[in-house]
């Protein structure tokens, strides 16, 4: 029998509500570019507005870029980070492979050498000995020295 993930805790603060989506610490409603939470250091910069183009719940219509990288994953109630594997990345979301299931609605912090992001879990399913987690990007901070190209093209 497969254990289901524990229910997500109630959201502490929604993005743009004056509180950090990760820890709930209050912040000013208007933030400077590249703002970070003064309590947990999570990025608070929301993603640029993009047309939704009829996205179904939990489905990304932006191009996905395949990745295979180990990332650091943090949960609000845990002091130590977990390791996860980044499988793909798009302008609005990502897919991770993790060992234990994560509840839909849970907010995670994903850190790589290239970016730091807050992610809301939109789906989690058993895959082999682990779980495939799909997340929607809430906030994003790109590392200034990140190598590679980030492109945002609108038709």
TrEMBL record:
<dbReference type="InterPro" id="IPR009875">
    <property type="entry name" value="PilZ_domain"/>
</dbReference>
<feature type="domain" description="PilZ">
    <location>
        <begin position="59"/>
        <end position="131"/>
    </location>
</feature>
<dbReference type="Pfam" id="PF07238">
    <property type="entry name" value="PilZ"/>
</dbReference>
<protein>
    <submittedName>
        <fullName>PilZ domain-containing protein</fullName>
    </submittedName>
</protein>
<dbReference type="GO" id="GO:0035438">
    <property type="term" value="F:cyclic-di-GMP binding"/>
</dbReference>
């Amino acid at each position: 029998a497969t254990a289901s993930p524990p229910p997500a805790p109630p959201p502490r603060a929604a993005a743009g509500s004056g509180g950090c989506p990760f820890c709930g610490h209050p912040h000013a409603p208007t933030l400077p570019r590249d703002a970070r939470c003064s309590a947990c250091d999570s990025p608070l910069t929301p993603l640029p507005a993009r047309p939704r183009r009829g996205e179904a719940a939990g489905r990304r219509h932006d191009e996905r870029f395949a990745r295979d990288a180990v990332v650091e994953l943090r949960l609000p109630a845990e002091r130590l980070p977990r390791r996860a594997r980044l499988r793909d990345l798009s302008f609005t979301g990502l897919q991770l492979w993790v060992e234990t299931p994560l509840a839909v609605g849970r907010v995670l912090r994903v850190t790589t050498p290239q970016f730091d992001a807050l992610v809301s879990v939109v789906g989690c399913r058993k895959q082999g000995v682990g779980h495939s987690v799909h997340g929607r990007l809430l906030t994003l901070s790109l590392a200034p020295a990140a190598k590679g190209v980030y492109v945002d093209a609108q038709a």
